[in-house]
Amino acid sequence: ASPTATSPKLETTTTSDVPNGTYSATGKLVLPHSVNADDVWDMLLDYERSSDIFHNIEEAVVMHDESRNQKQLVEQCRWVFLVFSGTFELLLDVDENVSERVLTFSLGKPGAFMQAFEGRWQVMTADDGQAVVAHTLTVRPSLPPPALVSGYTEAVFERQVKRVMEDLRNALL
């Protein structure tokens, strides 16, 4: 069924590569015709306002690594796992492909929690004119979770993508 102006469609899926320790979750959001794809793209590029949009970001600061001619983003992020929670700083390299409306964040340097991280956003206009947003989160934790909680870990990443997509949807509508 096609989403109506009041009910955008959100789908998420998760995969994991246990031997490699990598988890990947993808979300796709089809927005009502009242939302323009350019407005979605502009919102994603407004990094310093991301803490007003996304629940898991407390603060974001744009920087530039002159030695590599690389735009970077420093984020203070919230995390929750089982009964534990806290914040951590994340240094991300930012790649903006404006012509394709693809935005990629990758881990600037591995940290205590993550060996690898990539967040990829793509904003498209469907044939019927609706804005469609795809988001993929790929993470390789520094320490693989114990086998007993690996299924839970996979669900955490899928839930993270779903919540981020819901945050974006709520900010747009």
Automatic annotation (TrEMBL):
Occurrences of domain Coenzyme Q-binding protein COQ10 START (ranges): 35-165
Pfam families: Polyketide_cyc
PANTHER family linked: PUTATIVE (DUF220)-RELATED
Name of the molecule in the record: Coenzyme Q-binding protein COQ10 START domain-containing protein
Native organism taxonomy: Eukaryota, Viridiplantae, Chlorophyta, Pseudoscourfieldiophyceae, Pseudoscourfieldiales
